[in-house]
Amino acid sequence: MKKHLTHIIIALLLTLSCKAQSPIVGIDASRNSTPIGAYYKDLNNEFNKFVGTWVYTNGNDSLIIKLEKREQVAVRSNYRDMLSGEYKYVENGIEIINTIPLPSEISFAGNKNIGGGYIITGQNYDCTGCLDNERRIKLYISDPQRDYLSVYLILRYIVNETNPEKMTATIISTHGGVIPNADSPTSLRVPYGEYLMIKQ
């Protein structure tokens, strides 16, 4: 029994030691110059300003995005902080898609329909008016009925709008993915484009 307990303690210490020794780098560190097992950490808490519920409305159309921050998530051979969430889109008063779970079902473990956390800067992804050093967040957004599509969600926090807080959420196609057949839809059920969103 004593020998068995000793083996468990040694295994536990080795596991904790390996995780603790993962080199910590910023979320925008180059993957080419970062060792395997690195932890891409949100050192300046840039993701925090995007956490919460965001709403776009235009007449009877609305888009709701709910985001959470997840820390030290295992991604391939590394760890990273990321944003994760769900969304709801209503068009002409009719709910088109709703991936937001009921309160009793909320769990941010596992795959979500919005996720990621890559930093992009400058004019990348058609950001007219973006400054060269302006940092935005690139996420994926997926439609459970059209998960073969490859689509990005680009978040841009509007710095001078603090009461209420605002951001733009731009949904763009990467023209990737394999369409299952000729009749398959080629876009999300949420229209591509830019949405001005207000934090609730």
From TrEMBL:
InterPro entries: DUF6705 (IPR046551)
DUF6705 domain: residues covered: 1-200
Keyword Signal: yes
Name by which UniProt lists this protein: DUF6705 domain-containing protein
Signal peptide coordinates: 1-20
Superkingdom of this protein's organism: Bacteria
Keyword terms: Signal
Pfam families: DUF6705 (PF20448)
